[in-house]
Amino acid sequence: MSEKNKPGYISRYRRINLIWLIVWIIIGVAIVLTGWFIWHTRANILTVLGVLMVLPGAKRIIALIAAGRKKSVSEDRIKAIEELIEGYSYAADVDTFRYEDEEGKEIEAETVFWTDYIFTSSEKIMMLDFMVEKEGFVFAQPTARTDNFEYVKKYLTDVVNNASNNYKIYFVNSDEELIKALKKKENSERKISPVERLDVVSALKSLAV
Questions:
Q1: Cα separation, 14 vs 161, whole angstroms
Q2: Which of 2, 63, 87, 123 is close enough to 17 for a disulfide, judged by CB 3.0 to 4.6 Å?
């Protein structure tokens, strides 16, 4: 299964993309130098190939920009949430693939959990420290460095509502608020079908960088 949005994901994401950026730079320079030594001019096909290495390198630069300077959520913080949400699975381990004409499969885990969550819109790169889906609710905690909290709220709310109108989404500003929200018991007559739950979890998984 994917390691996306599991503990330490941002640190691994940044490290892997930095390594690949260095690799593509080395390959590009090596190709250009090879062409120079063979033909003693930059006007050769290998120079063109070397310049093309900028494209995969640029992809890695964009990935590093997306990660920014944010560090992975600490193990202590993650453990505090994990101890509270029984029967959970990380979203990366939940199979949400289905054909359009298939019935929604049951998600076995009572709770679906995300951490180190990076996602993007056409306008912004956004991050959550935690996100929890359970019993028709989505709880989201943007990172403390979020500069436009209202934008993040609206964007994620629209994503969830597009998948199901029966979900409620709550946003919190701290670990303490998240723990309090998860402990709070709320009676509700909302019925969440397997298809709705699958669509919501799938939509949230698909946003992740």
A1: 31
A2: 63
- Residue 139 pairs in a beta bridge with 132, 170
Q: Which of 26, 81, 66 is nearest to 50 (CA)?
A: 26
> Which two tokens mark 131?
């996100």
Reference 205, options 141, 159, 145, 154; nearest CA is 159
Q: Comparing C-alpha atoms, which of 96, 97, 100 is closest to residue 133?
A: 96
Q: What is the DSSP string of 71-113?
A: PPPPHHHHHHHHTTSTTEEEGGGS-----TTSPPPPP-SSEEE
Question: Which uninterrupted H or E stretch holds 138?
Answer: strand 137-142
The pTM of this model reads 0.83
